[in-house]
Amino acid sequence: MVEAIRVLVSRPDFLTNPLRALSRRATWRLRWLLSNDPWSMPLSGMRILAPRGGAGALIHYQGFSEPETAAYLKDILREGMMFWDVGAHIGEYAILAAGIIGDTGGVCAFEANPELCSLLLQTVAMNRLANVHVLASAVCHRQGDVHFDICAEPSISSIRGGQESREGVVKTLLVPATTLDEWWDQDERRPDVIKVDVEGAERLVLQGSRRLLSLGAGDAATWIIEFSPENCRRSGYHPSALLSTFREYGYRTYWLTAGPKLTDTQAGPPGWRSSGNVVAIKSSL
């Protein structure tokens, strides 16, 4: 209880308006007492279907599960761009991007969890988004089937990280997987921005993206990639491996914080103990 209160009072939405923050948490809990059906919630001028889980709760509380990521995407996305959302979950960033890039742009949303993929397809249809392509697939270093752990908290489901089991897993499925380089061969349109949130499989995604990573500064995508030391450890590698891979291909890496603000990962203290997102850019700011 003490820890829950500590987390609550540190939340930006609570610091901005405590009464509204408490009210939204009360309505979130009441809604799931009344119904277990996915909740259609407003998101960036559209609607999104959310199951009971952490991401949906944060969208209800503060507009997006990661407001700094949403703000950064609003800054860098332009009409006509291509946005790839790897580990799209319920699609909040795919939906946000679709509204910005317009009919001349495109969104590819990769989601391996069949239930979440179904919800995302319904959200796309509900908003009549012809520029969003949903792929029921995991993304890693090779094509083929992979074991995918479905967790009680939907947002932490992931490709099995080499161990037999982990806390919170309710079932394991065999799901299709592709690589980003292979998908580029099929899609042909080069991505401008790639967001990756795959709960520890980020290194595998990069291993399957060597041709994309090798593009020159004028063509290479901007990457926004989850940085979670715990997920990296569970998947068998040190988090520094993600930054090292980007640097190997000529990218500069930055911590993404509120504002949005970018801080060079080499200029600031090592972030091995905290989770967040890293932005990788193959050009100077």
Can you characterise this structure?
This protein is an alpha/beta fold. The chain has one domain: Vaccinia Virus protein VP39 (Rossmann fold, 3-Layer(aba) Sandwich). It is 37% helix and 25% strand. It contains twelve helices and 14 strands. The chain has helices at residues 2-10, 12-16, 18-34, 54-62, 67-76, 92-101, 114-126, 180-187, 202-207, 210-213, 229-234, 240-248, and strands at 39-43, 46-50, 82-86, 106-110, 132-135, 138-139, 144-151, 158-159, 169-178, 193-196, 222-227, 252-257, 261-264, 276-281. The strands form three sheets. It has an eight-stranded mixed sheet. A hairpin with a 3-residue loop joins strand 12 (252-257) and strand 13. Helix 3 packs across helix 4 (54-62). The longest helix has 17 residues, at 18-34. It is globular. The chain starts with a helix and ends with a strand.
Write the layout of secondary structure elements.
Elements: H1 2-10, H2 12-16, H3 18-34, E1 39-43, E2 46-50, H4 54-62, H5 67-76, E3 82-86, H6 92-101, E4 106-110, H7 114-126, E5 132-135, E6 138-139, E7 144-151, E8 158-159, E9 169-178, H8 180-187, E10 193-196, H9 202-207, H10 210-213, E11 222-227, H11 229-234, H12 240-248, E12 252-257, E13 261-264, E14 276-281
Parallel strand pairs: 3-4, 3-10, 4-5, 6-9, 10-11
Antiparallel strand pairs: 1-2, 7-8, 7-9, 11-14, 12-13, 12-14
